[in-house]
């Protein structure tokens, strides 16, 4: 196994208000299951799924965090190291749409990615199966995306498995493209040992027994 | 205690393809398969005697042992990261958890997290330290600390470690297989006549010295994971932990050819910021002969390849030219003449196995296997007993002597400032008799000291 090209691994974090359907989206995507019952996520859930993109298999490590405020101090480790951030809102809930700005800001502060202006976000508007109760129009969501540097927007339904696959495929494809831009992985061995005369006398000093 | 199989068992291979389905496929079978496989992986993990995880502190898996693919434990890695970072956010650090017979040990060395889940509780913290140093030997600590700053927190460190899985794997297996070697940062010497060892050391030292290569510091002859001789520049010292990293490196089967290798390697106990360059050769592993001795010459200068190649040739020629030495040396390396308990003399029949550790030289001498500890399982049992005794004496530093009578065997432990001795006796021995045998053993070891230990490290 060693020496062969490893499957790429992408850390994907999903953020949004409590009840917008983050866990349902994950469950639909990973396990293809949907439940009408609402169960708040405690802390975070971790899910895995492989996707094939142009003959490459990519493993998505999906961090499904709790939307409730009392769980929001989960620490920087949750945000940092992410390859992509999925923002989710409920199209029938205008407040969840208004929170997107603060979720995005929170992410950028906590994760402090190297290039915050071009960090890959994706916006998912969930529950489009409840069209009659819609409170946020597709146009409104799209124009928000434009102001944030053309974030891709998908209208999805976890319940009806609508667009969920396509959205995550786009996420994986985008992150993979960024990853392949980094070509220089050649290990460097720049540091020469500078010999220190004191080292001559350290008789087994490193031993901690 | 059940047998532990280093490097995993045979059934570890067939649960691998968790989710290689196409995105477009939506058949329900795939879903079932996906869930079933995920469960199968956890079930399998639960049965393993131990499992090691290395991940970035942001939760991306980097390495898992037992020939598994990191892709299978992606969610688990995130969970480990969550545990560790949560405790960290409380200003605390998570060290271990125990659940029934599973012992889980954590080590957070930014930017990495190490975790081992094991059925054995002994010295897991030490094992994780050894693993950390193994990673450092490949990248150096400073490069490891900088890589995420340079490439971003989402960097996949497996790209830099590509091809080194087997080194990490063999480091884990050898740690698991040895009773106390790595744990106690010790080495063992290959048994040799003192005059032969002397000739070997002085030859290596004189050739290294004569070359006048500024920065060439150490020469080591290794065979069967044991040291035949070690020479050094002036008073520079190489730590046994670093020696074990080298032993692990040269034991990699891909190096065992008549070719020469030039490998950058960081020896973290010596210096964790820079690299040594190791000239590695098996001078007598070729079509004509098969003497498994490996000569390692270490320099801090990357342009010393040709110089050390020359040194190697001189050493080899001089050793071969001394026919008497060379015959003895080949013999000692091919069929090591380990310490036989019968050497102790009368009454030694009741002693089945011993392990002696000299504290000042950090060298170990273990008895040759004898009845009834002959088979793999029996020897494994003996190693487990010694490992447990060793863990016990580490936990209770005031403990000096210990005699434990068991139904199958008796244990005798003796720890002084100078040495630790772990013995397995037959079940019918008394404490008084075992003490007499041990005293004779110590005398015998003292009189054959130069044969079983490297007493002087020759300088050049």
From TrEMBL, chain A:
Top-rank taxon of the source lineage equals: Eukaryota
Family label? Belongs to the small GTPase superfamily. Rab family.
A Gene Ontology term for the protein's cellular component: phagocytic vesicle
Q: Which GO terms describe its biological process?
A: body morphogenesis; endosomal transport; endosome to lysosome transport; oocyte growth; organelle fusion; phagolysosome assembly involved in apoptotic cell clearance; phagosome-lysosome fusion; positive regulation of early endosome to late endosome transport
The record ties this protein, via PROSITE patterns, to:
RAB, RAS, RHO
Give GO terms: molecular function aspect only: GTP binding; GTPase activity
Q: Where in the cell is it found?
A: Late endosome membrane
Tell me yes or no: is Nucleotide-binding among this UniProt entry's keywords. Answer: yes
Instruction: Return any one Pfam family short name.
Output: Ras
Write out the biased-composition intervals (Low complexity): 196-209
Region Disordered, as annotated, extends over 181-209
Task: Write out the entry's keywords from A to Z.
Answer: GTP-binding, Lipoprotein, Nucleotide-binding, Prenylation
Q: What is this protein called?
A: Ras-related protein Rab-7a
Q: Which SMART domains match?
A: RAB, RAN, RAS, RHO
From TrEMBL, chain B:
Q: Where are the transmembrane segments?
A: 411-438
Which segments carry the region annotation Disordered? 1-23
**Sequence ranges assigned to domain FUZ/MON1/HPS1 third Longin in this UniProt record:** 351-449
- Record bears the keyword Zinc: no
InterPro entries the record matches: FUZ/MON1/HPS1_longin_1 (IPR043972), FUZ/MON1/HPS1_longin_2 (IPR043971), FUZ/MON1/HPS1_longin_3 (IPR043970), Mon1 (IPR004353)
User: What processes in GO biological process is this protein linked to?
Assistant: body morphogenesis; early endosome to late endosome transport; embryo development ending in birth or egg hatching; endosome to lysosome transport via multivesicular body sorting pathway; nematode larval development; phagosome maturation involved in apoptotic cell clearance; positive regulation of early endosome to late endosome transport; positive regulation of locomotion
Q: Which residues form the FUZ/MON1/HPS1 second Longin domain?
A: 216-316
Which Pfam families does this UniProt record tie to the protein? Fuz_longin_1, Fuz_longin_2, Fuz_longin_3
Q: Does the keyword Transmembrane apply?
A: yes
Role description:
Plays an important role in membrane trafficking through the secretory apparatus.
PANTHER family xrefs: SAND PROTEIN-RELATED (PTHR13027), VACUOLAR FUSION PROTEIN MON1 HOMOLOG (PTHR13027:SF7)
Regarding protein family, the annotation reads:
Belongs to the MON1/SAND family.
Spell out the protein name for this chain: Vacuolar fusion protein MON1 homolog
Species this protein is from = Caenorhabditis briggsae
Name of the gene this protein is made from: sand-1
């Amino acid at each position: 196994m060693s020496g062969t090209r490893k499957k790429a691994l992408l850390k994907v974090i999903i953020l949004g208000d409590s009840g917008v359907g983050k866990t349902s989206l994950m469950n639909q995507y990973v396990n293809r299951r949907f439940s009408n019952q609402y169960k708040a996520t405690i802390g975070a859930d971790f899910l895995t799924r492989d996707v094939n993109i142009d003959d490459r298999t990519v493993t998505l490590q999906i961090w499904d965090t709790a939307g409730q405020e009392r769980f929001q101090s989960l620490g920087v480790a949750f945000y940092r190291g992410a390859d992509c951030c999925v923002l989710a809102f409920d199209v029938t809930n205008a407040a969840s749409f208004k929170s997107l700005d603060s979720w995005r800001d929170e992410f950028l502060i906590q994760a402090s990615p190297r290039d915050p202006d071009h960090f890959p976000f994706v916006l998912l508007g969930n529950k489009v199966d409840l069209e009659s109760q819609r409170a946020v129009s597709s146009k409104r969501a799209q124009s928000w995306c434009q102001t944030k540097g053309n974030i891709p927007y998908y209208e999805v339904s976890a319940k009806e498995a609508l667009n969920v696959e396509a959205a995550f495929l786009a996420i994986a494809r985008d992150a993979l493209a960024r990853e392949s831009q980094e070509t220089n992985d050649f290990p460097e061995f720049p540091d020469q040992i500078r010999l220190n005369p004191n080292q001559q006398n350290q008789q087994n000093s490193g031993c901690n027994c | 205690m059940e047998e532990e199989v280093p490097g995993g068992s045979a059934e570890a291979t067939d649960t691998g393809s968790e989710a290689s389905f196409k995105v477009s496929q939506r058949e329900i079978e795939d879903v079932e398969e996906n869930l079933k496989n995920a469960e199968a992986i956890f079930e399998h993990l639960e049965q393993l005697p131990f499992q090691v995880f290395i991940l970035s502190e942001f939760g991306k898996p980097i390495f898992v042992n037992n020939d598994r693919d990191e892709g299978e434990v992606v969610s688990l890695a995130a969970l480990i990261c969550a545990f560790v970072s949560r405790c960290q956010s409380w200003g605390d650090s998570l060290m271990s958890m125990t659940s029934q017979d599973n012992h889980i040990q954590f080590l957070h060395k930014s930017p990495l997290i190490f975790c081992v889940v094991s059925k054995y509780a002994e010295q897991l913290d030490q094992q994780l330290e050894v693993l950390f140093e193994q990673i450092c030997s490949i990248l150096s600590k400073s490069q490891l600390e900088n890589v995420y700053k340079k490439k971003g927190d989402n960097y996949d460190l497996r790209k830099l470690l590509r091809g080194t899985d087997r080194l990490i794997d063999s480091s884990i297996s050898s740690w698991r297989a040895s009773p106390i070697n790595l744990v106690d940062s010790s080495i063992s010497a290959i048994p040799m006549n003192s005059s032969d060892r002397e000739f070997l050391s002085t030859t290596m030292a004189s050739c290294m010295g004569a070359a006048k290569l500024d920065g060439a510091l150490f020469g080591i002859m290794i065979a069967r994971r044991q040291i035949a001789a070690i020479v050094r520049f002036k008073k520079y010292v190489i730590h046994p932990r670093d020696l074990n990293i080298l032993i692990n490196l040269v034991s990699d089967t891909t190096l065992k050819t008549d070719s020469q290798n030039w490998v950058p390697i960081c020896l973290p106990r010596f210096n964790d910021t820079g690299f040594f360059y190791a000239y590695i050769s098996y001078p007598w592993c070729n079509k004509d002969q098969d003497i498994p001795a490996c000569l390692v010459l270490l320099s801090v200068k990357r342009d010393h390849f040709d110089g050390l190649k020359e040194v190697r040739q001189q050493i080899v020629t001089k050793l071969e030219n001394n026919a008497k030495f060379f015959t003895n040396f080949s013999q000692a390396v091919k069929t090591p003449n380990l310490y036989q308990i019968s050497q102790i003399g009368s009454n030694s029949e009741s002693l089945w196995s011993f392990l002696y550790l000299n504290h000042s030289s950090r060298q170990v001498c273990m008895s040759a296997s004898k009845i009834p500890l002959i088979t793999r399982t029996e020897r494994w049992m003996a190693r487990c007993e010694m490992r447990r005794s060793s863990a016990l004496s580490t936990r209770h530093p005031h403990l000096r002597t210990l005699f434990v009578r068991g139904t199958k065997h008796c244990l005798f432990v003796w720890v002084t400032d100078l040495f630790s001795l772990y013995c397995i006796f037959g079940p019918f021995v008394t404490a008084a008799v075992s003490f007499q045998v041990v005293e004779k053993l110590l005398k015998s070891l003292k009189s054959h000291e130069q044969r079983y230990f490297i007493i002087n490290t020759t300088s050049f």
